Amino acid sequence: GAIVLAGRQAGEYATGVLDVLATFANQSAIAIQKARLFQRLEEANAHKSAFVANMSHELRTPLNAIIGYSEMLAEEAEEEGAASFVADLGKINSSGKHLLSLINNILDLSKIEAGRMDLYLEDFAVQDVLTEVEAVARPLVEQKRNRFVLNVDGEPGAMHADLTKVKQCLLNLLSNAAKFTEAGTVRLAVERSSEADGDWLTFAVSDTGIGMSEEQQGRLFEAFSQAEASTSSRYGGTGLGLALSRSFAQLMGGEITVTREPGKGSTFTLRLPAAAATGRMNGDR
Q1: Which run of H or E residues covers position 203?
Q2: pTM
């Protein structure tokens, strides 16, 4: 590019004017270089997402085989009275399923980054979802001597949304609350409301755990991020659950927000429309 300066009268330009133009030219050149670098980074990120997606598929195939064979061997060992093998095979099965869950999360993240995450909409009763979620979450919450409370305000009715993603969001939020709470209370409060743009469901997951600071809250929904550096080593986790849950909520036209107080717990609120829009995360709905 070029910057051309022309005047109506003969003579030299003031030094200050030339200095301003030189500064503007330098800044423009820097902006152009940044734009080129950003384009390269976008291309590299697209290649990375494609690689992760392909590798995730390749890893899931042998993992599913390991899980399947461990279940078959456990059944045979139990029939033959080899109780000592059943427990070990159960650990293999449990570890395989955990690893498969992590791989599925990474695959979902790569789809979200590539704008290729689809919604599979269907009609379902909210109460049925709550019953299933409670059955899975209650034992998890009670592992650390916590009390699980489910409060449903009125009749929750039905939803037209992605059933799997709604359940995944709720279980991620409840799992997160259970992880950071000990000898306390984890509560799921559900409410349906009618607004000008239709009915909405609000799912509030609150706990009496360790809470967080404002600085920690700012990193909550970043992929592979924990509230603080020491959290991962003490409490475990990959830092993907909240990031995925928020992306799923936004994909369905909703949002996840959080209120917190250090040492006094947190409340994560999942708000979803009763009738989700159809589409992908790249915006072509």
Answers
A1: strand 198-207
A2: 0.67
